[in-house]
Specification:
single chain; about 150 residues
């Protein structure tokens, strides 16, 4: 596996967050403008996946920026809490609720977690800092820890 300098990967992670937020905004604006939320019952799934992906990337980026490793369970807990905050916002903002709202909310939270899991695992591997994850895939070099800008070993 060829590794890039830590600073390049750090910037790539920031750009990936930006991409996830842009995708989320475009999908939401199109969904609202063209009535896709009502027309396609599945339409919110890619939005929650993208939102979870953004949250997973943001959590990993912030942890790297602060110079510590964040475990996958803790990262997913934070993704879940961000999803809960979003669902509370929808409830308070009186986003139209329908029959099966509770089940839909649980599905939304699961989609958030799945998106966060996918993004976190891919980005974590990109940084190749988790020895356990690397060993699970038979990679001995995954334990390399790369110094980030503004941090010292």
């Amino acid at each position: 596996m060829t590794t890039l300098p830590a600073q390049t990967r750090y910037r790539s992670l920031l750009l990936a967050q930006f991409g996830a937020v842009c995708l989320l905004a475009i999908l939401h604006l199109c969904g609202a403008a063209f009535g896709w939320y009502d027309r396609f019952l599945w339409y919110d799934i890619p939005l929650h996946l993208a939102g979870g992906a953004w949250a997973g990337l943001a959590i990993l980026w912030a942890s790297r920026r602060e110079g510590f490793q964040l475990s996958l369970p803790r990262a997913l807990l934070v993704v879940f809490l961000i999803g809960v905050a979003w669902e509370l916002f929808e409830f308070v903002a009186k986003v139209p609720q329908h029959a099966g709202y509770t089940l839909d909310t649980l599905k939304d939270l699961a989609d958030d977690i799945i998106g966060g899991l996918i993004a976190f695992v891919i980005a974590h591997r990109w940084f190749s800092v988790d020895a356990k994850l690397g060993q699970a895939y038979g990679e001995t070099h995954a334990a390399e820890i790369h110094e980030l800008p503004g941090t010292s070993a």
